[in-house]
Amino acid sequence: MKVLVINAGSSSLKYQLIETESEKVLAKGLCERIGLEGSKLTHSPEGKEKYVEEKPMPTHKTAVQMVLDALVDEEHGVIADINDISAVGHRVLHGGQYYSDSVVVNDDVKKVIKDCFPLGPLHNPANLIGIEACEDAMAGTPQVAVFDTAFGQSMEPKAYMYAIPYKYYEKYSIRKYGFHGTSHKFVSGRAIKFGELDNSNCKVIVCHLGNGASISASVGGKCVDTSMGLTPLEGLIMGTRSGDIDPAVVQYIANNENLSVDEVLNILNKESGVLGISGVSSDFRDLSAAAQEGNKRAQIALDAFIYRVAKYVGSYVAAMNGVDAIAFTGGIGENDCDTRYKICQYLGYLGIKIDEEKNKERGKEIYISTPDSNVKVMVIPTNEELAIARETLDLVK
Ligand code: AMP
Fold first, then answer.
1. Any residues with CB less than 8 A from the CB of 231 and at least 6 apart, and which?
2. Hey, what domains does the chain have and what are their CATH numbers?
3. What separation in Å is there between the alpha carbon of 382 and the centre of ligand 1?
4. What angle do CA 63, 69, 72 make, to 5 degrees?
5. Number of Cβ within a 10 Å radius of residue 115
6. Ligand 1 centroid from CA 331, angstroms
7. How far separated are the first and last CA of the chain, in Å rounded?
């Protein structure tokens, strides 16, 4: 079967066409600047030349049509007919408290995605537009919604409740949801298999460290806690997001800089994190280079990032009363061996021992702990598109 995976953002749309038996990517690409000037499609078919088309894309519907046209094009296409696509899997940011699993889209599902617009104001509307554009272009082809919040739905109230008046939970569903769920589920599942852990009760911590960063704790593959919250702003220090801060900081900046709450939130989302501390970059490669050249703020940003990850790992070990495996993933988790090593140096008290040579490896499933380490520490590359294709296949086959 061939599954088209769609990740629609507010002005972009990423896609992959995956052959589910071989799990090979037949084509992938990106529509950029949808609804803006200078929109373009970059289409990379397997075994063929990359194809770039600059053409106005006023709506996501136009973008979806361009993607489908590219997939069946005589020159740079990879399938003969749109009907060769058996199903479409959509990444949907927020499923609120309604969905703890992926689901085949129908009117009820679309209503939930819509009801969750206030919880995911940038992504959910784009996700729904992407679904409806595919429904229009591919009538009869099943559409599946894979929610980024689904994995976090197994958390207990003690983990997801904020200590604010309960009426806000009742009125507005304000609670911790967690994001990157598709990645956390995929990586924790792989960690259980790779680490030959006991499927029913193993305790796993996944550190998804990329430009967006989050961490999860799961027991027997079920999430018990995760660092992102009502929105992806909570938790670890990220590329441009602050992660945890005292909420009073919002009021303090707003009052002193004469800014609205929305404007301060924008700063916390887009101008903070390691970029905010360093003033150099949100990219860890730039930060490491700057730190090596003696830039103190870049060094503080790296140290603060590492320290925060280590603190979260410690708190999740306490929450689960132990840990069997820790898995690193995401652009930093998979590639930045120095950051990985420094995080693990905080964890010696758990009896963790790192093999420095193995830790230098990049981008593949590997143990970085020594055989006598008390906890298995590993690198597990994430693959959210493949995870979405698998979930889609499970629902439609
Ligand atoms: P992601 O959002 O998962 O794509 O991750 C992006 C982050 O991964 C950026 O901060 C990159 O600097 C970082 N990254 C990617 N490759 C490397 C590498 N080889 N060494 C260090 N950091 C890397």
1. 119
2. 1-146 (3.30.420.40), 197-377 (3.30.420.40)
3. 13
4. 145
5. 15
6. 4
7. 9
* pLDDT tens-place string over residues 235-274: 999 999 999 999 999 999 999 999 999 999 999 999 999 9
Catalogue the active-site residues: 148
H helices of the chain, in order, are: 60-72, 107-115, 124-137, 157-160, 166-172, 181-194, 248-257, 261-270, 273-278, 284-292, 296-320, 330-335, 337-345, 384-396
DSSP letter for each residue of 144-171: EEEETTGGGGG--HHHH--SS-HHHHHH
Judge contact between 274 and 241, C-beta under 8 A: no
Residue with tokens 């140290």: 303
pLDDT tens, position by position, 46-82: 999 999 999 999 999 999 999 999 999 999 999 999 9
Q: Is position 294 annotated in a ligand binding site?
A: no
In this model, does residue 17 exceed pLDDT 80?
A: yes
What would the DSSP string read from start to end of 111-136?
Answer: HHHHHTTTTSTTTHHHHHHHHHHHHH
Per-position b or e across 5-34, b if 16+ CB within 10 A of its CB: bbbbbebbbbbbbbbbeeeebbbbbbbbeb
The length of the chain, given as a count of residues: 397
| Whether residue 330 has its Cβ less than 6 Å from ligand 1 | yes
The Å distance, Cα 283 to ligand 1 centre, comes to 7
SS3 at position 209: strand
pLDDT tens figures, 82-120: 999 999 999 999 999 999 999 999 999 999 999 999 988
Count CB-CB contacts under 10 A for residue 285: 12
| pTM score of the predicted model | 0.95
Return the ligand 1 atom nearest residue 208 CA.
3
Q: Does the CB atom of residue 284 touch ligand 1 within 6 A?
A: yes
- Residue 328 is labelled as binding a ligand: no
CB-CB contact of 41 with 70 (8 Å): yes
Among 198, 204, 248, 253, smallest CA distance to 226 is for 204
Check the annotation: does 211 bind a ligand.
yes
Model confidence over 274-318: pLDDT tens digits? Answer: 999 999 999 999 999 999 999 999 999 999 999 999 999 999 999
pLDDT of 121 over the 90 cut? no
Exposed / middle / buried, residue 243 (Cβ in 10 Å: 0-12, 13-18, 19+): buried
Q: Would you place residue 363 in the very low, low, confident or very high pLDDT band (cuts 50, 70, 90)?
A: confident
How many Å apart are CA 109 and CA 101, to the nearest integer? 12
